[in-house]
Amino acid sequence: MADSILRLEALEKSYGALLVTDRVSLDVRPGEIHAVIGPNGAGKTTLIGQISGSLQPDAGRILFEGRGVTHLPMHARARAGLARSFQITTILPDFTARQNVALALQAHQGHSFRFFRDVAKDEALNEAAGRVLADLSLASRADIPAGVLSHGEKRSLELAIALATAPKLLLLDEPMAGTGREETDRLVEVLSSLKGRYAMLLVEHDMSAVFALADRISVLVYGAIIATGTPEEIRNDARVREAYLGEEAA
Ligand SMILES: Nc1ncnc2c1ncn2[C@@H]1O[C@H](COP(=O)(O)OP(=O)(O)OP(=O)(O)O)[C@@H](O)[C@H]1O
């Protein structure tokens, strides 16, 4: 359907007898931040894996911009504009932030990593990398080795690397994991500033970040979506409170 960039139709996946994705259907609209929340072990990581292509569903369909991608390999999905960030280490610590982004830009343009010397000299590429970093408030940190950035800055750099591939949809897999309150607030700000420019599917445990960012939230419990709605609707949903938010709301 034209009004959704990503659509999951009745996805199913089991590990042996354990049903981890139970007829999951959801859609992400252009420019929307759609969060998926749920208790530990609800099947969020397994769901992201099926969307990015690292895992195959047993049944159901995944449509990206109306096109079936259920059986496409990961790199083909990435090329089509489906970028996964976080929970995968993409940063080269000895290279500067700018060089990290320049390499991602170069790889996206279809060149090989082997010609790094050429990247270092490529002004257009370095300028483009600088623009991506500026977008993420990392301009002042562009020319220091990525390894010495703070944890939160590394998260922003991972995002910059994902953005260098000109994605249409960002899959954000627990971006706040392991960050302190201040860094979480900064990341929320960074993601807010990107809002509307990219569609995002956000899996996140930090409820204050989810409720600050999401346009819609889907709640996953034992592999099944029990509710989808605006933050307000989810907050007031009796089943959600009972199954998941109950203790926190109390
Ligand atoms: N490769 C696997 N083989 C067997 N069981 C698995 C495998 N991967 C995950 N599981 C099980 O599937 C269920 C869902 O796991 P998953 O990691 O997707 O949940 P999650 O919602 O991402 O959890 P968390 O919030 O703790 O990251 C869990 O019970 C987990 O133990």
Automatic annotation (TrEMBL):
SUPFAM superfamilies, sorted: P-loop containing nucleoside triphosphate hydrolases
Domain ABC transporter: 6-247
Gene3D superfamilies xref list: P-loop containing nucleotide triphosphate hydrolases
Pfam families with a match to the protein in the record: ABC_tran, BCA_ABC_TP_C
Source organism, top-level taxon: Bacteria
Coiled coil segments of this chain: none
GO CC annotations, alphabetized: plasma membrane
Keywords: ATP-binding, Nucleotide-binding, Transport
GO molecular function per UniProt: ATP binding; ATP hydrolysis activity
InterPro entries registered for this protein in UniProt: AAA+_ATPase, ABC_AA/LPS_Transport, ABC_transporter-like_ATP-bd, BCA_ABC_TP_C, P-loop_NTPase
Classification via PANTHER family: ABC TRANSPORTER ATP-BINDING PROTEIN (PTHR45772:SF2), CONSERVED COMPONENT OF ABC TRANSPORTER FOR NATURAL AMINO ACIDS-RELATED (PTHR45772)
Name this protein carries in UniProt: ABC transporter ATP-binding protein
Organism listed in the record: Stappia albiluteola
